[in-house]
Amino acid sequence: MIKIIADSSCDLKDFPDVPFETVPLTLSTDEKSFVDEPDLDVDEVLDYLYSHHGRSYTACPSTQSWLDAFEGADEIYVVTITSGLSGTYASAGIAKEQYLSEHPEVKICIVDSLSTGPGMVLLIEKIAELKAQGKSFEEVSSAIVTYQKSLKLYFALQSLHNLAVNGRVNKIIASAIGIMNIRILGTASPVGTIDPVAKCRGDKRVLEKIIEEIRACGYKGGKVRICHVENLELANVIAERLREIFGDIDLRIVPARGLCSYYAERGGIILGCER
Ligand code: X90
User: Fold this and answer.
1) Is the CB of 270 under 6 A from ligand 1?
2) How far, in Å, are 34, 88, 109, 115 from residue 80 at the CA level?
3) Which of 131, 148, 165 is the last residue in one of the domains?
4) Which among 87, 90, 133, 270 has the fewest CB atoms less than 10 Å away?
5) Predicted TM-score of the model (pTM)
6) Is the CB of 188 inside a 6 Å radius of any atom of ligand 1?
7) Considering only CA atoms, which residue is closest to atom 15 of ligand 1?
8) Is residue 111 part of a domain?
9) Last residue of a domain, one of 123, 148, 173
């Protein structure tokens, strides 16, 4: 049996036609922990975290949670959040070594998305598509690396607070948007870290700038996936504008699950596209 497994930052809860499972990261304060399971009430968790005065942080999935997900499959594809910002890829790697020592006949491919959310969605969809075409494990494993390099990730955030306090972005960049109505537009660097592109005042400017960046990166009408943190409005406006320019493109919008909601914060959107 083949199985695709991703960590919960992919924002998907299920996937059609292929055995699919997500392995949760965890969001915590010193008093409470929330496991980023599909049924997590994200809105409630965000309310709690925004009203909580102490520190909050996250943790990557345990080795055991990967091992549990591997159980029963003999051809496994794992897609993780960027190794540039999380230990998730490393923990999946440890689980793989351990699992293979007990099940040497199983095949496991771990893909470092160097991205998150919608970038991971595109990778998961590509793996499923290649398998549906009858491609072998070796063919999929090599094609997916090439595909990963063709993807771009952009994000527009209203706050970088949680990224900054957890050391995932430079504090100087983060403090620059503590001002009303300023949004930061960024992209994933080639090594999967956060690359700020511009500071924008207001949603209209964010829209113009993100479209400008997408055009400049060589986007020609390929697939687009957008995840949003309680900001379907902005996601829809971007989608509409892209359709005006590029026609009837393959575009889907999904709400963020816990991990991306925590870091992208309320109002944030993340966009992944093919070039
Ligand atoms: O291991 C852990 O505890 C998880 C740490 C994750 C840290 C960053 C998550 C970022 C999510 C923010 C915008 C997208 C940036 C992606 C750049 C590659 C969402």
Assistant:
1) yes
2) 19, 6, 11, 8
3) 148
4) 133
5) 0.97
6) yes
7) 194
8) yes
9) 148
